[in-house]
Amino acid sequence: MKIYNSLTDKKEDFKTNNGKKVNMYVCGPTVYNYIHIGNARPVVFFDIVKRYLTYKGYEVTYASNITDVDDKIINRAIEENKTEKEIVDKFASQYFNDCANLGSNKPDITPYATDYIEQMIKYIKNLEDTGYAYFKDGNVYFRISKIGDYGILSNQRKEDLIAGARIDVADQKESPLDFTLWKNTDVGIKWDSPWGKGRPGWHTECVVMINDIFKEEIDIHGGGTDLKFPHHENEIAQANASDKTHLAKQWMHVGRLQIDNQKMSKSEGRTIWVKDLLENYPYQAFRLFILSSHYRQPINYTDEIMNQYNKEWDKISKAYKQAYVSLAMAGNTNKELSEEIKEFESYMDDDFNTPNVLMLISNIIKKINTKIRSKEDFSAEFNTLDVILNTLGTIPVKPVVDAEAKDIYNKWNEARVNKDFEAADKYRNILVEKGII
Ligand SMILES: [Zn+2]
């Protein structure tokens, strides 16, 4: 299996630290608002990564955090005259609802940053003791000059970054690239520390949670491509300082989602919240849309494209249902898979080539329909379709085919054969009502 590694800019054979065990971490949201469909792309994609690795026999532990301390949360709390905890509780629970409604399984571990403050203080203290951090005017900064390969992930040279950095006149830092590990603050929630009252910086949160949960370099670290710099670059710099690792063997980044070929923008009204989208479309249609572009490429959302995938999903789920009911009625219990399963694996093994998988799904459905017409056994193709759709988390509804349903189904067929259209219509309506056809 090959996966593109953002750290080396190469498609590489997927290698783990411990055989079939995979430790995976994906940066989660700062919970100060609802999530939009751009945030949903990694939520859907990394859910599929876990599903597929599990399908391949890996035992995946998936962690994704909640950032519950940040200026944005503090500002929203002030605006709404609420406590920060009220804001966090509201939007974290909405986030988990949205993820579930997108068809994504909840990660195995969902750490909240503020549950790790003690470990963060210890971690920063250690960086300070070893010369990788320095204290100035209440804040603690990371010393970038100590990291030789800074810029490795985002392919930027340290000198160029320094030359291009904005220098604040009031800046007390040794280098404009140095980032805040501990922030002295007057507003919002704060904790006691060796450097006075304050709170940790965002880049430190993820590193400390990863270390605390997994205890070693992890196998996969993921996130949106907008997190590459500075967030992930700074995570790597800290791991380099504290553990002499790049934090993860494999770095994966999901491309951005645009609306009408433009960047999503709240001020210009170009934001679609997940909760609103899912009022108009089934989650499976949105997942098909996400899968229609390779995960590293940007993806463009328009109502027209979304409607197209809605129709596509309708086609897939109807074909699936028809095949399922017909096999259930015939009492066909064959569990074999068809040859297409190898094709599915070859696409997924090639850095998650999901656009090709969507074409394969169309081909399988065509094949099933041909076989239905020629009265051939299509159970193996159906089983393969079932495995693929489940692995993509795009799961069709299976109607309940009980004895009563079978009886009506047989009567319906009989009436059709006898050209008793009135009776056929009556039975057909019952079957439609029961969701069987
Ligand atoms: Zn992070």
Key traits:
437 residues; alpha/beta; Rossmann fold; four-stranded parallel sheet; 12 strands; 48% helix; elongated; binds zinc ion
Question: Could you characterize what this model shows?
Answer:
This protein folds into three domains: 274 residues, Rossmann fold (3-Layer(aba) Sandwich); 111 residues, no CATH class; 31 residues. The protein starts with a strand and ends with a helix. The mean pLDDT is 95. It is an alpha/beta fold. Helix content is 48%, strand content 13%. The chain is built from 15 helices and twelve strands. The site of zinc ion (ZN) has 3 residues, from loops.
Please indicate the count of domains.
Answer: 3
Low-confidence stretches: none
CATH class of the largest domain: Alpha Beta
Molecular shape:
elongated
| CATH-assigned fold name of the largest domain | Rossmann fold
Number of separate helices: 15
Bound molecules: zinc ion
Mean pLDDT: 95
Query: How is the main sheet built?
Result: 4 strands, parallel
Q: What is the terminal-to-terminal distance?
A: 39 Å
CATH architecture annotation of the largest domain = 3-Layer(aba) Sandwich
β-strand amount: 5-15%
SSE diagram, text form:
Blueprint: E1 2-5, E2 10-13, E3 21-26, H1 37-55, E4 59-64, H2 71-79, H3 84-101, H4 117-129, E5 133-136, E6 139-142, H5 158-164, E7 180-184, E8 198-200, H6 202-214, E9 218-224, H7 228-243, E10 248-254, E11 257-259, H8 274-280, H9 283-291, E12 299-301, H10 303-329, H11 340-349, H12 354-373, H13 379-391, H14 403-417, H15 421-433
Parallel strand pairs: 3-4, 3-9, 9-10, 11-12
Antiparallel strand pairs: 1-2, 5-6, 6-7, 7-8
The protein binds zinc ion.
Residues 27, 206, 231 line the site of zinc ion.
